[in-house]
Amino acid sequence: MKQVPIGVSARHIHLSKEHIAMLFGAGYELKEMKALSQPGQYAAEETVAVVGPKGRFDKVRILGPARSKSQLEVSRTDAFALGVNPPVRESGHTAGTPGIKVIGPAGEVELEEGVIVAARHIHFHTDDAAKWGIADKQELTVRFEGERGVTFEHVIARVSDQFALDMHIDTDEANAAGIKTGDIGVILA
């Protein structure tokens, strides 16, 4: 049985070094609040506000370290509240996505693009993927047994020797199925 831990991903933002400087001041370095499931990734102490055409969220957690491009990841419910219509995309695939205003303590940035609803995915270390015969970018089906059991289709495999085994879904998906971080899914195909 191919079991995978599930992590529930709340709204968050990844920022480029350039945007960190614009929002927090020149030379600013994010401070790690807690490590995440993926090696080297962390939730920063810092937060920002994001403002869309219809609404805003304050205290949106920044995930570090800095990325090459800034990107806001929201659930579909969050998108409705902000008044944007982002596509479901893999992280980093932001071309043609809506933009958003980001406000920090030292300034603000108008992202021209970068708002996505993250595609559900599983991070596989290369050893785990090889053991289970799973290829990078392969689409998988994952079953969650529980009071509100559900089967997730179109789960993208992301394989790297930099990853640790973990499935990521957003809060809408988790709430619909009664899933919490640490619950276990079973890869069916």
Automatic annotation (TrEMBL):
InterPro entries xref list? PTAC
Keyword Metal-binding included in the entry's annotation:
yes
* Catalytic function, reaction form: propanoyl-CoA + phosphate = propanoyl phosphate + CoA
Q: Required co-factor?
A: Zn(2+)
What pathway or pathways are given for this protein in its record? Polyol metabolism; 1,2-propanediol degradation
Q: Which domain of life is it from?
A: Bacteria
Could you confirm whether the keyword Metal-binding appears in this record? yes
Pfam families hit by this protein:
PTAC
Q: Which GO terms describe its biological process?
A: 1,2-propanediol catabolic process
Q: Which family does the entry's similarity section mention?
A: Belongs to the PduL family.
Q: What's this chain's function?
A: Involved in 1,2-propanediol (1,2-PD) degradation by catalyzing the conversion of propanoyl-CoA to propanoyl-phosphate.
| The protein's name in its UniProt record | Phosphate propanoyltransferase
Q: What is the lineage of its organism?
A: Bacteria, Bacillati, Bacillota, Bacilli, Bacillales
